Amino acid sequence: MLPRTMADYSVYELLNKKRRGGPLDAAEIEFFIDGFTKSAIPEYQMSALLMAIAINGMTAPEMATLTQSMLRSGEQWHLRDSYDYFADKHSTGGVGDKVSLVLSPWVAACGIKIGMLSGRGLGHTGGTLDKLEAIPGFNARLSRADFEKAVADCGCVISTSTEGIAPADKKIYALRDVTGTVESLPLITASIMSKKLAMGASALILDVKTGSGAFMRNYSDSKALAQSLIAAAAGSGTRVEALITDMDRPLGIAAGNANEIIETIECVKGKGPADVMEVTRAQAVRILAMSGRFDDASAGKALHDALTSGRALEQTRKWIAAQGGNPKIVDDYSLLPQPRTVIEVKAPRSGYITHMDTYQAGMFTVDLGAGRKKADDVIDYAAGVMFDKRSGDEVKAGEVIARIQLGAAARDERELVSRFLSFVEFGDDQPKARPLVHEHLT
Amino acid sequence: MLPRTMADYSVYELLNKKRRGGPLDAAEIEFFIDGFTKSAIPEYQMSALLMAIAINGMTAPEMATLTQSMLRSGEQWHLRDSYDYFADKHSTGGVGDKVSLVLSPWVAACGIKIGMLSGRGLGHTGGTLDKLEAIPGFNARLSRADFEKAVADCGCVISTSTEGIAPADKKIYALRDVTGTVESLPLITASIMSKKLAMGASALILDVKTGSGAFMRNYSDSKALAQSLIAAAAGSGTRVEALITDMDRPLGIAAGNANEIIETIECVKGKGPADVMEVTRAQAVRILAMSGRFDDASAGKALHDALTSGRALEQTRKWIAAQGGNPKIVDDYSLLPQPRTVIEVKAPRSGYITHMDTYQAGMFTVDLGAGRKKADDVIDYAAGVMFDKRSGDEVKAGEVIARIQLGAAARDERELVSRFLSFVEFGDDQPKARPLVHEHLT
To answer: For A79-167+195-330, CATH number?
Structure first.
């Protein structure tokens, strides 16, 4: 028999209420999250609540309370109290998404303090921290003190979330993972926002991806997620805006780790692919504008100047050095992990690439060793793909459309090429171009 | 971190499927119930499934599979293979519901073998086993061998469910009790029917109560439960029919334990209250008719003869003796536990009892010591209430409408009378009579 205590009785009533679809009030949600974090509420009751939330949903006030209860389970850094303005940025993840890497030194070069507690890659999307760890010496596991020191030293920092941030989220996520409750807008929202808001930035820009390589493929789902993430921040003290950006093809040419570092540096040198620059610039403008020190026009000019003057590049060197990395990689890409061999994929026909399933492109890249299918997989930083041609591009039969960069592991080259071509569609007509920035939500 | 194994992976997919509302197939349900019974599937995954079922419901085939998976978790007695015809009966419970006690010797006196694995009282309803245990010496905890011996000796038996019957139900019920998933038609159905069908009777008559003293107060809920219970037996080999009977006032005059044994014996002597006789006869007719040896008319005649000939009374003596009880109580009620004192409740005005909240009447009886609010409460067999006047009866101011029979515990008599009157409504007009047997479902 399971023990039944007074605490169980309250939990039982709350579970009945949520099962019937009724919203829980703030005290009830706080009681549940606090109790579960302290192990006073057992997993079998939490999993019942998670399933009830996953099926019956949550109101916007419930989500905001859930998010804030989860963030209060751990440290709150209140960085907005330490700086006039402190910016944060979050992406829902995609293939070739190096926006955080380009954005950080770029806005820092405009005098904006920015820091992110970021994640590692899992599944088809890459992880910002994994990419940074391709840089020899780079330390992405900073203590809170080292995080703040890096901000003081150079104005920008990216590190893994520390143990103290939102422990409730770690416990809840582990349970969601084994109880079929991962797919739930309110639970996804609270998980993301509890970690982000715990830092206590002045402003947070959300890059919510949409398309075949996004967490939410469908536009209306992406928009609902963006709105939900913004709603969950109500009353938190952090100003949150979102851009819905395209992830129906890889962002930029490079997907992997070392190769994305190279592409990042090309971007801060002003030579990056147009799509990476456009998506990054849109977010950088919002970060500058939310500070109140810039309007859209002056933000655009400041960003342009930071790039053309070489300050963004210089900031990148300072940032890498501040986190222990070798800044010489900026001038000598051969200091980064190098692919053992490169396999060219050639167009089987002339015409247009009409579509590329970007989820498949991401999983392909992961399978090369560039990402993780399980949390304890080891990354091969040299492995990756260069998507020289992407959806909408014209190709000639026999022309190189991609370069598969192999890391340490031996692979069947013909099988790789064949698998690559399985997720690329060719046709005679150029497909309609998708906008890179779909919508701005506040 | 929670461990993740191959088994977890399957469970995770099943939980996702049920969360999305999709029906689980038979193998999936069997896998889940078998795994949980053997503790291969942990409570936190089972509670997530229970919540998903409680919210999203189950199809009739899912319910039948769930029921049969739960019954297969333990012993299956297959009694229909040992006897030409073996009958079973189940009631959803009510106040003053002594139908099983009257029915068993009555149909046995007509040559029908009948046996029930019954429950104890919890909450506002009494328990058949508790009532039987008011008889000095009566043993309601029979092994399977003793159960079958009692059938051989006298043709009827009522005992508590043994440990070996549907262990999955015990484990699942304990979890439902603390996870807010008690109120769920498919889970209620599977819980009831897994225990009943494990006995493997030839036929089972379900007495589904409706009204203010019933588990389902509302008629449409009662009917849905009856239909659900019948549907869950599909393919089980036990023929199941249901009668929806009235529980908007106590059944008979007596509610308690010893007092209900006295009323039971009055019934088998042919002197019982008309409502108890009508509800019991309706079920007894179905049990006789389902054997194929009687039609409705000959069943009615056989039951009439068993009563008027004294065979039903003689059968009652044999039955009590077969289960170790003192059969002399049939002729000498003073051998039963006696109330220490009796408090009369008098009508505060003349007119009609227009309604009595029978749930409250049941809870009142429980509070006297006649039932249990918690599973480990001790029963006072002498305590109870005689509802001399019930809904629809005409009363004169100052006339005795009820007698409160106190057991060992001292009580504030004025407070008891005042509380009793709080759930009885009086008026000038006789309320419309409710039928005793509402509907017969097959």
So the answer is: 3.40.1030.10
Catalytic pick among A100, A161, A191, A202: A191
| Optimal mutation site among B47, B163, B169, B187, interface A, most CBs of chain A within 10 A | B47
Compute the average pLDDT of residues A261-278. 97
What's the pLDDT at B57?
96
Taking the domains of chain B in order of start, what are their residue ranges?
A: 7-57, 79-167+195-330, 337-427
Domains A7-57 and A79-167+195-330 share a fold: no
Q: Is A195 a catalytic residue?
A: yes
Q: Which residues in chain A are contacts of B15 at CB distance < 8 A?
A: 51, 179-181
Q: What's residue B1's pLDDT?
A: 40
A53-111 per-position pLDDT tens digit:
999 999 999 999 999 999 999 999 999 999 999 999 999 999 999 999 999 999 999 99
Question: What's the CATH number of domain A7-57, 1.20.970.10, 3.20.20.70, 3.10.20.310, 3.20.20.300?
Answer: 1.20.970.10
Per residue, the 3-state secondary structure of chain B, as one string, reads CCCCCHHHHHHHHHHHHHHCCCCCCHHHHHHHHHHHHCCCCCHHHHHHHHHHHHHHCCCHHHHHHHHHHHHHCCCCCCHHHHCCCEEEEEECCCCCCCHHHHHHHHHHCCCCEEEEEECCCCCCCCCHHHHHCCCCCCCCCCCHHHHHHHHHHHCEEEEECCCCCCHHHHHHHHHHHHHCCCCCHHHHHHHHHHHHHHCCCCEEEEEEEECCCCCCCCHHHHHHHHHHHHHHCCCCCCEEEEEEEECCCCCCCEEECHHHHHHHHHHHCCCCCHHHHHHHHHHHHHHHHHCCCCCHHHHHHHHHHHHHCCHHHHHHHHHHHHCCCCHHHHCCHHHCCCCCEEEEEECCCCEEEEEECHHHHHHHHHHHHHCCCCCCCCCCCCCEEECCCCCCCEECCCCEEEEEEECCCCCCHHHHHHHHHHCEEEECCCCCCCCCEEEEEC
Residue A122 has pLDDT above 80, yes or no: no
Whole-model pTM? Answer: 0.86
Q: Write the CATH number of the domain with boundaries A337-427.
A: 3.90.1170.30
